[in-house]
Amino acid sequence: MEVEGELTEDAWVIDFGELKRIGEALCQELDHRFLLPRDNPALNISDLDDAWQITSAGRRYVIPKSDVCVLPLDNSTAERLAEWFCHRLAEALTERGNITSISVGVEEAPGQTGWCTLSLGNR
Asked: Which of 30, 37, 47, 117 could serve as 73's disulfide partner, Cβ 3.0–4.6 Å?
């Protein structure tokens, strides 16, 4: 995560502890869960009472809802996850008023990172 912006009265853009807490909370939503890209055209997703049923390419999977994080994405690539994370981070930071840009990278493996950068226009 990277943020850019105007310095506050305390001479910082953001308290790194606050940024870390927000980032950790977002990561917790995804941690140890099956990431289900809700808008993927290759997946047929059915909402069962306590599980998600996913069919694709002739295969059927049933996964307990407690093990799934449904994401409004067309795919669960590093690029799309970075985009999702960046938008959620922007929601959390926009009201601060001094943040002008947010960048988030999601690393699949060393040297393989998908990035998203948003301009917030707070100037």
From this structure: 37
